[in-house]
Amino acid sequence: MAFLSDEAIERRIYSIIDPIERKDGRPKNLEASSYELKLGEEVFLSSDKKLVRLGRERIDVTIRPGDFAILLSHESVKIPDDLMALISIKTAYKNMGLVNISGFHVDPGFHGKLTFSVYNAGPGEIILRHMETVFVIFFATLGRDDGTKCQRPYNGGHQEQHTISSHDMNKLTGKPVSPLDLDERLQKLEHTSSIQWGLLAALTVAVLVAVFRALIRG
Question: Most CB within 10 Å of its CB: which of 56, 63, 76, 207?
Fold first, then answer.
C-alpha cells in the first residue's frame, strides 16, 4: 500500500470528487498528500435531537462541549476499485477538541457523500461554518503496484448516500455526558455530602450533650 502524492491525486481527482473548486488552474483544496473537503448542508446535533440545514438562512452550527454530532460533506466521492481512502478532521478542529468517532476509511467502490460522527471533547464551543474546509481525505493504493483492484467493492447500505439518514441520527439520541458535566456533578455531590455530614455531626453532638445532661441530673 502506498499513499498518493499531490501530483498523483491531481491526475485522478476529477473522476473521484465532485465538485472540484479550481484556483490558478489547479484544484484549490489539494494539499501535499491529501484533499480537503467542505462542510455540507446538513448537521445533526445530539443535544437538540434535530437535523440542522445550513445555507442562506443559517450559515454555521455550534457544537457544545460534550455534544455528539453528525456532519455531512459538501462533496460527493466515487472511490475507484484500485484505491481506498482515509478520512479525518482538520488539525485546527482537532486542537479544539473535535474528535472523529466514526470510521476512518472509505472502501473501494463507495459512491456518495461522506458522514462524520464527531464528539466535542474540548472545554469550549466549536463553531463550524457551511462550505468551510473541515475534513481531510487521503488516498492509497491496495497493493505495491497501482494496478491492484478490489475484488469485492463496497455495495452496502450507505451507497449513494446524499443525506444524513434517520438510522444514523437514532444512534446518537440520548443525553450526552461530558467530562465537564461529570466534574460538576461530582462537585455538587461532594458539596451535598459535606452539608449532610455537617448536619449529622451537629445532631450527634446535640444528642450526646442531651444524654450527658440527663446522666448528670440522674
Answer: 63
Instruction: Find residue 43's DSSP bridge partners.
Output: 52, 71
pLDDT above 50 (res 182) = no
| Alpha carbons 206 and 98: distance in angstroms, whole number | 54
What average pLDDT score do residues 168-185 get? Answer: 65
Looking up cell 459512491 gives 111
Q: Tell me the domain boundaries of the chain.
A: 6-171, 177-218
In whole angstroms, what is the distance from residue 143 CA to residue 67 CA?
39
Containing H/E element for 169?
A: helix 166-171
How sure is the predictor about 146, in pLDDT bands with cuts at 50, 70 and 90? low
Does position 56 have pLDDT exceeding 90, yes or no?
no
Report the phi/psi class of residue 23: left, alpha or beta, with left for phi > 0 and alpha for psi in -120 to 50: beta
Q: Which residue has the higher pLDDT, 208 or 6?
A: 6
User: CATH: 1.10.220.30, 2.30.110.10, 2.70.40.10, 3.40.50.1000. Which one for 6-171?
Assistant: 2.70.40.10
Name beta bridge partners: 62.
127
CA–CA separation, 175 and 8 (whole Å): 45
